[in-house]
Amino acid sequence: MKKALRFILLGLTFLVTLCAGLFVYFVYTPDPEEPLLTGTLTKATLAVNGETYTYRLYLPKDLAKDAPLVMVLHGSGQNGAQIRSETGYGFERLADQHGFAVVYPSGKSFDWNDCSKTGDFLVNGRELDDVHYLNTLVDTLIAAHGFDQRRVFATGVSAGGFMSLRLALESPDRFRAVAAVSANVPAPDNFKCKPVEQGASVMMMNGTADTIVPYSGGEVELWGMFFQNGQVLSSAASAEFFVTQHKLRLAAKREVPLPGVKNVQSMQWQDDGRFEVELVTIVDGGHGMPQPYWQRPRILGPSPMEPNGPELIWQFFARQKL
Known about the structure:
The protein is α/β, with parallel strands linked by helices. The protein has helices at 2-26, 80-86, 90-98, 130-145, 159-170, 235-245, 309-318, and strands spanning 40-48, 51-59, 69-73, 101-105, 122-123, 126-127, 152-157, 177-181, 201-207, 218-219, 231-232, 254-255, 264-270, 276-282.
């Protein structure tokens, strides 16, 4: 009896140790070191349609009254504090250099209510209108701080990237351009948005080795068991979706080299006026935003430390014509 009990205890100890080791190897990654910044970060709440939302706002020191505003949206099951850390505080570093504000909204449901029909969007039995929430947040911040309403931008990773695409399609009157990371356009049978005639300029930044959102299109899932959010188009087809939406010529695309960066391809479609579409492909990159400050968990696929995703995104935002 004692031998059997000892054997069981040893087995349980081995199993616990194995699970802990697998967690550390595949999931755990230390937080990035917070940089020394010039400005202040404040946490506040906003009431919209009977719900109270939380957001964090970073304002660099001596920010101009008519400065741009960049909204950064978190992934599934996360909040604004987490995406701030997981982007390596990259947008705040850039905000200090280039003079813009950064806001990190927190959602209420597990997934943002994006263009997909499939996802965990319910809160207390109802779907929340995240477009209305984020529009209201922008209006509130412009009224309070005097940000330039012509230079409001949105970016996000994973679910936040999918939500950015919805803002581009349905709310271009508030968002001049968006940048979606690790996100594709939902396939027709999984698409519920109602796009306006022409939306915001769009950048997409996707890795070819993404373990959740397939670069070549298909089911959004992890190992067939988690994050099952329906079918999406390929990254190329998603970019072409927006090219068509903006009435750009598909044949007008051009490949743009990124000096000093390996394994990255950029395809751009532009006109002489207001609209631009760009697809940045991270060859052998996994799920998440590439940046030099934080190593993503191995479960999400390869985690290249270049290019500097936030910097490429800000460059895209900054060159948009008003």
